[in-house]
Amino acid sequence: MNLEKFHTYCLSLPGTTEGFPFGENILVFYVMGKLFALTDVDAFESVNLKCDPEEAVELRERYDAVQPGYHMNKKHWNTVLFDGSIPDKLLLEWTKKSYDLVVKGLPKKAREELAAQS
In this structure, what CATH number is given to the domain that contains residue 73? Predict the structure, then answer.
């Protein structure tokens, strides 16, 4: 995975914006103002993604490159290391799941606004 491909994919998801609230090297992707992914643009060695708590544990047990979310709520977030063991397709699937989890938790009005954008 390279930064350009990841960046393009995230911004292709409806209602997605980006920002640097944690400094100039931590890129955060939001859907309707709620965070769903973040990564260090200088190193681009990993990404933090929201995850269903049960699935988060499963993924950590199954993949060495999946760890509890660094500087995040470890129940709901995983850090995925870009060590070459996770195929790009799978990483993008997990990114979409993170996005979908955040969308699911949005207030009804925000979900309706998002649906109107799609």
Answer: 3.90.1150.30
Residues β-bridged to residue 34? 31
Whole-angstrom distance, CA of residue 108 vs CA of residue 82: 35
Which residue, among 47, 110, 115, has the nearest Cα to 82 in the 3D structure? 47
DSSP 35-53: EEEEEETTT--EEEEE--H
Strands 66-68 and 46-50: unpaired
Q: Which of 33, 49, 47 is nearest to 5 (CA)?
A: 47
Question: How much is the pTM?
Answer: 0.95
Q: pLDDT for 50-81, tens place per residue?
A: 999 999 999 999 999 999 999 999 999 999 99
